[in-house]
Amino acid sequence: MLKNTGFDPLGYVNRVKEILPKIYGKKPLALINTYGCQQNVSDSEKIKGMLTTMGYGLTEDVEKADFVLFNTCAVRGHAEDRVFGNIGVMKQYKQKNKNMIVAVCGCMAQQQIIADKVRKSYPYVDLLFGTHVTTRLPEFIYKRLTGSGRIFEISQDSSEIVEGVPISRDGKIRGWLPIMYGCDNFCTYCIVPYVRGRERSRASEEIIKEAECLVKSGYKEIFLLGQNVNSYGKGLDEDINFSKLLRRLNAIEGDFVIRFMTSHPKDCTKELIDTVAECKKVERHLHLPFQSGSDRVLKQMNRRYDSKGYLELINYAKEKIDGVTFTSDIIVGFPGETYEDFEKTVKLVKEVEFASLFTFIYSPRNGTPAASMPDPITRKEKGVWFNELLKVQEEIGRSNNQKLVGQTFRVLCDSIESEGLLSGKTSSNIEIMFEGSDQLLGQFVDVKITQYTNSLKGEIV
C-alpha cells in the first residue's frame, strides 16, 4: 500500500518566509531552468508554487536571481551536457551574490554518479536533490539559509505520493495533470525507472478534484501525465484503471479537451481505444512509441510486444476512432541493430503513416543494460540511417497534410505566432496557423484549412 501524504505549509515554508526578508532585505527572486519532458515541466510548476508560498518572487533574469534551480533530464546525453554547461556559468553569479542559492534537482540529480560529479567539480552548488524528495525543498532552503553546509539528498524511497503541493502554473490554457509516477518496464535503454522509481498511481479522487479545479479556473486542455499512463491504477485500493479514469474525467462539466501521454504499446488495450472513441472530450490522437520495427531489436529492448501486435492496435484504433492520428518515438542504431532491422522500422512507418515522429540516434545511459551491449555500427552510419528515416517521414507528412486542405476543424487556439497570426491544434493533434485577434487565445474556433506549404494554414469559418 502506497503512502499518500499532504504537503505541510505550516512547517519549513513559514520558517523560510520569516527569515527571507532578514537575509535579503527585499523580496528575493527565483529562477527555474527546466529541461526534458512534460513531467519535469509539471514538477517545476510545483517548485515555483512552493517558492512563491515561501515568499520568493519569480524572474527570468539570472542577474536578478537570488535562487537558481536546474530541474534536469537524464534521458539523453545531450541534455546532461547542456545542464553542466549552464551550471558552470553560475560560478560568476554566485561570486557577485554571496547569498545566492544554486540548486540542482530532477532525473540527473537522482543518479549517484552525477551527485558525486557535482559535489566534486561544482562547489558553488548548494543543493542537490533527487526526484523522490522534491517536496522537501522548503526544508533544504531553510537549513542552507541558517548555516547548514551543502545539502545532497537522493533518497531511493519512491513510495510516497505527496498531495496538496502549491502549484504556480506557467500558462492559462493547458494544465499539466500528473496521474501517476515512475515506471516498471525497465526497457534496456532507458534510465527512467532508475531515476523516477517504480510505478505508483494517484488516487482518482485527487485527480478528479484537480481536474475540476483546472476547468473552473478556465483551462481548456487537461493534459494527463505519466511515464506509462496505460498502467494507471496499480497499487490503489479502488476499482479503477486508465479507461475508467478517462470516462470520469470526460463526465466533468465544461467545454475542455483531454490529452495524455505516454502510452506503452504492451499496456494499450482495446478497452482504452474504445474509451477514446466514445468520450467526446478525449482527443483523437495516440502517442504510442514503438521504438523499432524489428522484433529482434524489440526483444533486446525488453519492450514486450512485437510489430504484429503493434499494428493490430493501430488498425483497431483506425477502425474505431474517427480521424485518429498517431505519433511515436523511434530509436535509430540500438546496439546490435543491423540495416535489415532498420528497414523493418521504415516499413512500419510507411504502413502506419504517422502524423509525426520523435526520432533519436541511440544514446547510451550509464546503469542501463544496453550501455554494455556490443555496438559495432558507427555513429556516422547511424546518422545515415537517421536521415533516411527523416526523409520517409517528411514525405508521409506532406502527403497527409495535403489531404487536409479544404477540410474544417474545431481548433483550440493555444498560441500567438506573431501579431495577428494565431495557431492551435485540432482534436487529432494537427497544428494549424490562422489569422485572428489575440482575444481568441484560449478559445475554440472552427478553422478551414486553405493551404499547405511548410505548415498548415487556414481561416476562421
Percent of sequence in beta strands: 15-25%
Q: What Rg do the Cα atoms give?
A: 23 Å
In helices, the fraction of residues equals: 25-40%
Q: What overall geometry do the principal axes of the alpha carbons give?
A: globular
Overall strand count: 21
Question: Helix/strand-derived class?
Answer: alpha/beta
Which regions contain 5 or more consecutive residues with pLDDT less than 50? Answer: none
User: Mind telling me the CATH class of the largest domain?
Assistant: Alpha Beta
Number of contiguous helices? 13
What would the CATH topology of the largest domain be?
A: Rossmann fold
Task: Please state the average pLDDT score.
Answer: 94
Q: Strands across the major sheet, in which order?
A: 3-2-4-5-6-7
Q: How many distinct folded domains?
A: 4
Per CATH, the architecture of the largest domain is 3-Layer(aba) Sandwich
The named CATH superfamily of the largest domain? Methylthiotransferase, N-terminal domain
Give the biggest sheet: 6 strands, parallel
The end-to-end span amounts to 53 Å
What keywords describe this structure?
4 domains, 5-stranded mixed beta barrel, Transcription Regulator spoIIAA, 6-stranded parallel sheet, 23% strand, 461 residues, alpha/beta
Give an overview of the whole structure.
This protein has 461 residues and is an alpha/beta fold. The chain has 4 domains: 3-160, Rossmann fold, CATH 3.40.50.12160; 171-282, 2-Layer Sandwich (Transcription Regulator spoIIAA); 284-402, Transcription Regulator spoIIAA, CATH 3.30.750; 408-460, OB fold (Dihydrolipoamide Acetyltransferase, E2P) (Beta Barrel), CATH 2.40.50. The chain is built from 13 helices and 21 strands. The chain has helices spanning 12-24, 38-54, 77-96, 112-121, 137-145, 192-196, 204-216, 242-250, 270-278, 295-301, 307-320, 339-352, 379-402; strands at 3-6, 29-34, 57-58, 67-72, 101-106, 127-129, 151-153, 160-163, 174-178, 180-181, 200-201, 221-225, 257-261, 285-287, 325-332, 356-361, 408-418, 421-425, 431-435, 444-452, 456-460. The chain has a 6-stranded parallel sheet, with helices on both faces. Strands 17-18-19-21-20 form a 5-stranded mixed barrel. Strand 20 (444-452) and strand 21 (456-460) form a beta hairpin. Helix 9 runs parallel beside helix 11 (307-320) and helix 12 runs parallel beside helix 13. It starts with a strand and ends with a strand.
